[in-house]
Each structure stands twice: as structure tokens, then as C-alpha cells.
Design goal:
The chain contains four helices and no strands. By secondary structure, it is mostly helical. The protein is elongated.
């Protein structure tokens, strides 16, 4: 048999109590609703340090920086970087073979 629990506090019917628990002040960032722009990628690549050890892929940052001067992704390398990053961003998934580092948004 199911019994109704007693409400000794009276909170179950107190609308003010429950409204105070709702989060109404949330930050909304509309820029997070759009795909990543090429300028975002080139800016991030520009900020990577030179002469540092490469990651598990063995590719130093100097190689990735070869596309920084492109205003739009024109080279094959730039196009694939742009495509892969946006696929990961839009899907919210990082391929297993790329999931070897901490990714900061």
C-alpha cells in the first residue's frame, strides 16, 4: 500500500518557497549557438607557443600555424582543420583518437 507523506513544514503547497529555488538569473551566451569561425581558430593557433614538445600526435604547433595567415580556409590543411573542429563543436563529441588532452572552451 502507498501512503502519502506528511508535510509537516507546509512547503509542498508554498509557491513562494518553490519559486525561490528556481534559477531565473542564468547567463546566456548567444555566441555559443553558432559554429566556430575561422578567425577563432587562427587566433587560437596564433597563441600556441613555439619550440615546445608536440602532443601525442607528434605534430608541433609550428605546423598547425602554417594556416594562420589564411583569411578564409583555402588550403587543404586549413579546410580539414576547420571542418573537423566544427564537426566536434556541433556534435559535442571528440573522436577517441583525439581525446588525449584536456580541452578548454
Amino acid at each position: 500500500m502507498i501512503r502519502k507523506a506528511n508535510d509537516s513544514t507546509g512547503n509542498s503547497r508554498n509557491a513562494i518557497k518553490w519559486e525561490s529555488l528556481l534559477v531565473t538569473d542564468c547567463n546566456y551566451f548567444p555566441e555559443c549557438d553558432t559554429s566556430i569561425k575561422w578567425s577563432d581558430i587562427t587566433m587560437a593557433l596564433s597563441d600556441t607557443p613555439n619550440n615546445k614538445a608536440s602532443g601525442s600526435d607528434g605534430i608541433p604547433s609550428e605546423v598547425w600555424k602554417l594556416v594562420v595567415s589564411e583569411k578564409i580556409p583555402e588550403s587543404k590543411m586549413a579546410k580539414i582543420i576547420f571542418k573537423i573542429i566544427n564537426i566536434m563543436y556541433d556534435s559535442g563529441e571528440i573522436p577517441i583518437n583525439m581525446d588525449t588532452s584536456i580541452v578548454l572552451p
